[in-house]
Amino acid sequence: MRDENSGTESVWTASWPTLPLRPLNQSLEADVCIVGAGIAGLSTAYCLSCEGKSVVVLDAGVIGGGMTERTTAHLSNVIDDGYVEIERLHGEEGARLAAESHTAAITRIDTIVTAERIDCDFERVDGYLFQAPEQSGEQLEQERLAALRAGVVGVVRVEHPSVPALEPGTCLRIPRQAQFHPLKYLTGLAQAIGRCGGQIFTDCHVETVKSEKHMRIETRPGHVITAHSVVVATNTPINDMVVVHTKQAPYTTYVIGASVPKNSVPTALYWDQADPYHYVRIQKGATAADSQDILIVGGEDHKTGQADDGEDRHRRLEQWARARFPMIQQIEYRWSGQVMEPIDGLGLIGRNPGDDPNVYIATGDSGMGMTHGTIAAMLITDLILGRPNPWATLYDPSRKSLKAAGTFVQENLNVVAQYGDWLSSGDVESENQIPKGTGAILRQGLQKLAVYRDEGGELHRCSAVCPHLKCIVAWDSIEHSWNCPCHGSRFNAYGKVVTGPAKADLAPMEP
Question: Over the stretch 392-429, which tens digit does the pLDDT of each residue have?
Fold first, then answer.
């Protein structure tokens, strides 16, 4: 989210220009239509284009303008939930396939960068995993052994790391991780897709995905794409009302970018196992003459739409970071992003449950969107081409996760509880109480309104009811957006939808 959709800017958008919009002005036919021009969508388009398929990509915003521009761009085979947990949920073979797929995704990005000569700051680095203060060294050792059983190569225990310690004590060092500039990478992918004959259209809102003789994708301008297959890669599916959304939950995560003296922090990926956990990396200055690098620090997650204390969370991130990286000079960037957390720790990639067999989804990034998105490209390409893929069952969106039943119940009870907002009073009693540049929920009889007062003092009124499954949205003072606390739909201050699963805007309301 950026411009009127956002109150913050990521380090990536600050250092890379927005690619020009290319609106769709005609109906088209293609082998495959891909909805979403983020990492999963463009990676899939690239793979299919290289296989000779005609591809059309549609995005409601700009290339990389969704959660890809909000990432911290860790390229890692260190699973977010840890290999002990992945092995518990999916068995040793499932953990092995998970490690294999994420390792292959990093290698795939490396190969594409080289083959297409993409200048995107790609670099292989070590990763360091630190235990949480309340954890024992034995728990860290169990994680090391589980990672080795899964086939992660070279994981070693380090007693006295040569890098800044996130927590005292031992840590794990994992070689052959990587990092890059995600928007530079997507720019290179977009150019390569164009050379292969693929077409990318932005500022093009998809209204419906229908199964007829062929797949029919209808857009808000009224144009239609007819295709044999459809891939919905919109962070969370816009073509699925309920099923997939019961298998994952939206979380908001916070990030700061701090200036540090050049080369004062070793280039590596850093994580701890706290709850909520922290993740750190360094982004080098753009040129050799730059005297500063940017230290990127993330964490402080919460359920989307269920808290509005982003300033406090950014402040806590800064305090945490300064205690461990005393070379920090000042905070240059603050932003947030949305992470879709699947109930069993792995992405939901493949055929959309209960849909036409030619409809595919890629979602459930679990904080690993860059590798999950690349896995999606390789896996969905094989499915469309009728080739076997060893990861298909592991990532199948229709899978039953019986060992994750407790998480399934907990997350969905949380969703049910949000409907209680229909009965609550508003944030304020009167529109007069809403300051300039902020929004608030206001009760008006049986209705609830989402009211935003712009910097000029003008009021903008919308229904507070999310058009997806009728939850009441909440104001986000950091991003200047309305967020749905049930399934993570996000709308800008004026009610325009910017993140699904909602496809429609908040309904405008008369004064």
Answer: 999 999 998 888 888 878 888 888 888 888 888 889 98
Terminus-to-terminus CA distance in the chain, angstroms? 28
Q: Distance (Å, rounded) from C-alpha 271 to C-alpha 80?
A: 9
Q: What is the pLDDT of residues 4-44, one digit of tens each?
A: 444 578 999 988 988 888 999 899 999 999 999 999 999 99
CB atoms within 10 A of CB 199: 18
Tally of helices (H runs) and strands (E runs) in the chain: 9, 24
Q: What gap in Å lies between CA 414 and CA 486, rounded to an integer?
A: 8
CA distance 169 to 158: 9
The rounded Cα 321 to chain-centroid distance in angstroms is: 23
Tokens 């990521």, located at residue? 10
Q: In whole angstroms, give the CA distance from residue 249 to residue 213.
A: 34
Question: Tell me, what DSSP letter sits at residue 131?
Answer: -
**Alpha helix ranges (H) inside 116-205:** 137-149, 182-195
Instruction: Supply 416's token pair.
Output: 């049910």
Domains, the chain, ordered by start = 27-61+79-122+180-207+216-238+343-388 (3.50.50.60), 123-179+251-340 (3.30.9.10), 423-499 (2.102.10.10)
